[in-house]
Amino acid sequence: MVREAGCGRVGFDKVALVQQERSGSRRMSSAQAPALVHHDGGRPAAACWLSKGEHVALRTVIRRRRSLLLAALALLAAVVVPGADASLPGKPAGPVGCDAGRLAGTHHPGDTRSHPANVAGCVSYTHAGYGESWLIVTPPIVSNGTTVPSAVIRGGPYQDHPTTQLPSFGIARSVDEGAHWANLQFAGNSTEVANRCGSDPGFYRDPVTNRTFWYGDGSCEDVSYVVGPMNIMYSDDGGESWRDFADPMNFFPDIFDAAHMLGAPATTADSKAALARNHYAGNVIYMCGGSTCYKSVDGGVTYGNKSSIKALAAGQKDGKLYTLSSGVLNVSTDEGKTWSPQGKAIPSSLSAGGIGMCTRAGGAGDLWVDNANNIYVGGTSGGKLAVAFSRDGGNSWSSPITAQMPEVTSFAMCSFAADPDRPGHIAFAYNGATAKTPSPTQHGYLTETENLFEANPLFTSVQVDSDSDPLLPNGGPAAAAPGTIGLGGAGMPPHSVSRYDYMGVTFSPVDGRPWASYAKDRCNLTFCLDQPDPNLTSGDNMQRNYFWTGWIGAVGTMATIPTA
Predict the structure, then answer these.
(1) Closest C-alpha to 24, from 33, 16, 34
(2) What is the pLDDT of residues 238-288, one digit of tens each?
(3) What are residue 562's DSSP bridge partners?
(4) 416 Cα distance to chain centroid
(5) How many other C-beta atoms lie within 10 A of the C-beta of residue 38?
(6) Is the dihedral of CA 290, 293, 294, 299 positive or negative?
């Protein structure tokens, strides 16, 4: 059953309105969102609420009318708006919100400027939220005889307008590379009766079964705020439908904040037997936080068997779990039961760790292992974004390799990832500024290389947002404000309330395209103070920082510009 709020018919009408930037769009005032691109005749935006329980579905696949609709739209674009043809020279192909006029180029480590390249930065906007988020890209999946297209999914959206519900978290999901973003709100569970809420949202996709997990720590409501549940949902059809994890208090008090999820092949006889007995053909799933990981041998339906150390990465080739301790790898070959040091320390000139500094909540994000057991650590070296790698299990490490776009002279937050399917393919997402950027404005940047292991790797970098409409017109969020708690603070001009303390970057399993999650501060006046959510008492607002937000989710990527 789907509980709706003006969602309309199945098909395009079921998808919430896109909030997307296009080249030349007007600048927003403090009360305006980015321009809305209406796909259903200009009706108001709709948020779709997903009910709790067994199986909830929101279909965004267009079936009977798809071919006719797409043909009509293609004809309209060709006749009415010939300049909209993305195949024309100078027009980026693929995602929406792209502009070849933004800063972009290629560079090698040590270069002082980028070189021209046929690439453009792209950004689209999702829904209101308070900043922090991870994201994931799912491959096409056949479900009930229908192919569900590849989807980009970003966590952390609120419902589009304050309602009788408390502030809630769900997911923003696009099946057309950011042209439209659905707003899926998860309903309540046993500890959060009215809705689903929390912070530090994240995702994990089991590459064996394509089961996709969303998770976040509680809590909007008083009960969940005190006891601290972990909210988990999972989908077997690329985010079209979701099942609820039945026991959110299972991890308390070991894990109730800043968690992350991993998966790896079973390495013990007991787990292999349990996976077979439970008819789950995928990985052992690990829910990690605090100083431990709970493991699941039934595809995330139940969790138990705590590890003695919290894992930060997992190898898909052999099932090893990895963490870093004083710069040295520690590994487990028995699913977290025992751990031992492995190899040498990472280069001392590479600084890794620290929330927002290429790690997400819980400390994960700077350490990655690809499917060939190459190991990567992202961080900073000499004040620049850099990465080191090992191709022999940590016995030797490369020197830190500078990845930051040469024109970017300062950065305030970053995220790092290695592509598990394509050795040597890594990416950084970051907020920062160039020497020409007026203070305190910050833009969003995205850097990748597909040949990190070469002697002089070539990086490609883009600025995803425009100079005229920056993501952070007033700089990054304030650390705190008088009378409030939370990493973003509230009532600190000129920022909206935010917990924008980490961002995300990932890769499409289809084509390897990097995607990154950012946040946009819509308060671009001299100052902007958000109003308390009308559904919370003043004490709740002061205690938990749930003001109605001036922030909106942003998703960035890069696209190739076709040549003549």
Answers:
(1) 34
(2) 999 999 888 888 998 898 878 999 999 999 999 999 999 999 999 999 999
(3) none
(4) 11
(5) 12
(6) positive
- Assign residue 69 a region: left if phi > 0, alpha if psi is -120 to 50, beta otherwise? alpha
Q: Where are the domains of the chain?
A: 2-63+95-560
With a cut of 70, which residues of the chain have pLDDT below it? Answer: 1-93, 130, 161-168, 193-198, 218-228, 355-356, 361, 477-499, 523-550, 564
Q: Collapsing DSSP states into helix, strand and coil, what is residue 347?
A: coil
Who contacts 505 (Cβ-Cβ below 8 Å, separation ≥6)?
135, 415, 416, 417, 427, 428, 429, 446, 514, 515, 516, 517
Distances (CA, A) of 67 to 35, 64, 85: 27, 7, 19
- Cα–Cα distance, 72 to 464 (Å, whole number): 30
What is 194-218 written as a DSSP string? S----EEEEEEE-TTT--EEEEEE-
For the chain, counts of helices (H) and of strands (E): 4, 36
- What φ, ψ does residue 401 adopt, rounded to 5°? -110, 120
d(CA 538, CA 33): 26
Are the C-beta atoms of 294 and 305 separated by less than 8 Å? yes
Nearest 10 degrees: Cα torsion 376, 381, 385, 391: -20
Quote the CA–CA distance of 266 and 268 in Å, as a whole number: 6
Token code pair at residue 33: 């969102």
User: Residue 52: CA atoms inside 13 Å, Cβ hemisphere, count?
Assistant: 16
Dihedral of CA 91/95/97/101: which sign?
negative
pTM: 0.82
Cα gap 292→307, rounded to integer Å: 5
**Assigned token pair, 526:** 């001299």
DSSP 483: T
Give the DSSP H/E element, type plus range, for residue 277. Answer: helix 269-277
DSSP state of 359: B
* Residue 328: strand pairing partners: 325
Cβ-based neighbour number of residue 199 at 10 Å: 26
User: How far, CA to CA in Å, does 505 sit from each of 284, 341, 428?
Assistant: 23, 28, 7
SS3 226: helix
Measured CA to CA, the distance from residue 518 to residue 448 in angstroms comes to 16
82 DSSP assignment: G
